[in-house]
């Protein structure tokens, strides 16, 4: 079993509130718009990190992290990308790949809107953790945490950090 912390859209912001939850996870996944790499460096000092770069990320983030991160963990296939869209409205870049090689878990960021939605057509769980940083229109900083165990995703929790600074 793995305890996963999922965050996105930090936009160069990391604080003790985020790091408290990082310490409780087995792995941390970041769905892009990292901003300054001090964010991912701070996470990597504490826990293993899987991440992708987002549209605001510079050449350093793009050199360290991929556009798409596809992997299998404890029997669950995962695809993380920054701009992915939503069920019935997937981004054109990923639409074909989702149909051809459907993951169990499709994760994106970008919108700053937390969303957990099951796609009945493709039989996948779509996650967007919202935004953990202070930049953007969102009012509350959010993340998700859940467990992956022997092919199943369970104990999903929404983490509301605080109002945006």
Molecular structure report:
This protein has helices at 16-24, 38-46, 59-64, 92-100; strands at 2-7, 27-30, 49-51, 68-73, 76-81, 85-86, 89-90, 105-107, 114-119, 124-129, 140-149, 152-163. By secondary structure, it is of the alpha/beta class. Strands 3-2-1-11-12 form a five-stranded mixed sheet, covered by helices on one side. Strands 4-5-8-10-9 form a five-stranded mixed sheet, with no helix packed on it. The chain has a two-stranded antiparallel ribbon with strand order 6-7. Strand 4 (68-73) and strand 5 form a beta hairpin. The longest helix has 9 residues, at 16-24. The protein is globular, with a radius of gyration of 14 Å. The N and C termini lie far apart (35 Å).
N-end to C-end Cα span: 35 Å
Number of distinct beta strands: 12
Give the DSSP E fraction (strand runs of 2 or more residues): 35-45%
Q: What summary fits the major beta sheet?
A: 5 strands, mixed
Integer-rounded radius of gyration: 14 Å
Identify the quaternary structure here. single chain
